[in-house]
Amino acid sequence: MTAFVYQFLAFAYQVADVFAFLVLAAGGLAIIFGMMGIINMAHGEFITCGAYVTTALVRAGLPLPVGIVMGALFAGVLGIALERTIVRRFYNRPIDSLVVTWGVSLIATQGALLVLGSAWTSVGTPLGSIGFGDYSFALYRLVMLAVAIGVLVGLYLLFMKTRFGVHARATMQNPAMARALGVPTERIYAQTFGLGAALAGLAGGVYAPTLTLSPTMGTGFVVESFVTVVVGGADVLTGTAPASAVLAIIRAACTAAWGQVFGLIGLLVTVCIVIRVLPEGFSGWLMRRRA
Amino acid sequence: MSMLRNLAIASAAGLMLGVSAAAALADDKPPLKIGLLEDHSGDIAIFTMPKVHGAHLAVDEINAAGGILGRKLEIIEYDPQFDNAKFQEFARRLIEKDGVQVIFGAATSASREAIRPIIDKDNALLFYAQQYEGGVCDGNMIGTGGVPEQQFSTLIPYMMEKYGKKVYVIAADYNFGQISTEWTRKLVTEAGGQILGAELIPLGVSQFGQTIQNIQKAKPDWLMTLVVGNAQSAFYEQAAAAGLHIPMGSSITIGLGFEHKRFKPPTMQGMHVVMNWFEEIDRPAAKAFVARWHAKYPNETYINDMGENEYSAIYMYKKLAEMAGSFDLDKIRAQIATGKACIDAPEGQICIDPKSQHASHQMTLLSVNADHSVKVEKVWPRVDPYWLGQIGCDLTKDDPKEQYTPSNLPSK
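The joint structure predicted for all components is written out below.
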């Protein structure tokens, strides 16, 4: 009986771990895609940016939480700068915006390699571990789950309860009408892009202690984040969250049964099925049911 | 005015001619071009840059001492950026456009297999200065790194005797990881042990929560880790954070990836590796080599086995050319066939085995302490690369240009 409880706890922990990873990895991408229709290929580089800033600050002596917040803020500011200079010229040109952000991503990766070198020492995972029967888990990974849930709650409050949220949703539904009613859509776009970049930076900062830092580390998040956004659809709250939960169960179960290769295969097969059955993802399906 | 200018140009040209004639007098033979094809960028650049440095250090030393057969060496190099297609493109350019006959390079087995057909077709020579999964029987390749009979046939019996017979393997999912897993399986089962699980990990995967749990569920006595690249090396950090304290063995950590210098202690505690070179080797020639290296490259974090192997490979080429009295590949191979091609490398004496064209090595088993200092557990003074010869590869008689594995043996 206890063995069964431990098995269940272990599985629940793994699902929670993958869920947190998918929410944090995909949140920023989903916001930028959902609100602005921009497919941000430089998403992984904002994650890398957050991880490096966090690590640099922790090494300089700041506590980890401060480092993570600063990493997210730095990525956010960089996101706003990128939107003001480059991305805003590509609205309503989805394919062009994809290419231009990909170009930014290549420049950022190779530039970081030249400036920062190919690997930094990581700061090490804090908090130690906890044991259940045969299994033991890093406590820090529960912090990641808390951060992921915090991000979802925060986004819900931001978009549903604040003036910015009302303006942002109006801009998303009908930009021309929103502008006619006095919503500063240009500023909303810049803020939304900055918010997406900051969430990516947050993911990088949170995961930095558990990963090997390198300029290409962002690519380790990119496949999963795109998969989650494709399955979830354009809305973070009704899309990314349920998509992350479903994909986490599938991935954890496949990996537990047959190893990492099948975990990845399970993820990709799910995407193929979802694209076929629900072309607009979970959020599109939920919207249609409500309407 | 224009006449004056022409005069100036003519005299400048004359001056340059005079200079180059003087240079030619001092050094009457043109330099010998050698190709260097190693990643300067990409996911494994941190490990391959020491190869670039090792090659330049060796060439500088050789040139300062008069070159090879009176000719100075000139390195022609490109950055393939961890991209196998670029490896092929640059290998072709080196041979067909730059006119080199010998290439030092390729790190991953995928890149080696990508360029080997080009080297073979153009009848050039590849020095593959890299520990790998072994088995390449190709007259156009000389392997100067460790192979499984040097790394696994030493490490696995040691680990099984010391820690137990139940083994779990995690490996990168491409030819190196797959064939190395096959080797581990063969050696463990032959010694009466058991493989409790073998998990192949796609390159680029960086989340190991479930893998760590699978290992804890299987309860092995020790773990063979053959993960590759920056993303996968996060396994160690995550395993340590999850409290997975288990003895580990590997053929690529520490001496190659210097994780004990890059990760926070005690992440790598309990790791055991067998290699022909570690920067910590205590030998006068090794110490002098390390001092020369750090004088030229003061920012090098660690001189890994790939760096020392590349350095030694260039000296091996010098030795072979001098024995043959020529740079001609057939004459060089005739010298390899004598079995007398030996040099004193920083690690100790290495000799090229005539049948397989791979190098013998002195092998050292290191373990990593909690503070990331290392301890020499065992030394094998000379291990020959015997496996290819045993299964019937004999490059002095026949050149199949094949890669063999325990499950892909030559047809007799």
